[in-house]
Write a structure and sequence with these properties.
With 125 residues, the chain is α+β, with helices and mostly antiparallel strands. The chain contains three helices and five strands. It has a three-stranded antiparallel sheet. Strands 2-3 form a two-stranded antiparallel sheet. It is rod-shaped, with a radius of gyration of 35 Å. The model has no long low-confidence stretch (mean pLDDT 76).
């Protein structure tokens, strides 16, 4: 049986290394072999006597597309997490600044602690 590597990666099959576009004859192996079935399904191998000049090597195989999609999703999630953290930090900063501008911050802190202090009002003479 003759197979051709139609991916852009170097693969090894039954101890034989296949460069992209290279074909090799495998003895005592048929298409029902699980390894051959996996590579055919992933569009990494093509069966038959085809040369690299006749066969157009695919840009990306199905497994490569899945890997690229997973990496893109992970990168997107990471960027969103960073954006969320920055937004949260900014929100906390805004709250802190707004809290400083309140006139009665001292009395709120005191009432939160259960303390009731009264500031005496002195008459102006």
């Amino acid at each position: 049986m003759r197979v051709t590597n139609i991916s852009r990666k170097i693969i090894s099959i039954f101890g034989k290394t296949l460069l992209p576009g290279e074909d090799v004859k495998l003895d005592n192996v048929d298409e029902s072999n699980p390894t051959i079935q996996f590579y055919l399904k992933a569009k990494v191998l093509a069966v038959g006597n085809t040369s690299a000049a006749q066969m157009k090597i695919s840009d990306t195989g199905e497994t490569e597309r899945e890997k690229i999609a997973r990496e893109a999703v992970e990168k997107y999630k990471q960027e969103q997490e960073e954006y969320r953290k920055k937004a949260e930090e900014k929100e906390n900063e805004i709250k802190a600044v707004k809290g400083m501008k309140k006139k009665r911050i001292l009395s709120k802190k005191q009432s939160g602690l259960g303390l009731n202090f009264q500031i005496p009002i002195l008459p102006i003479c």
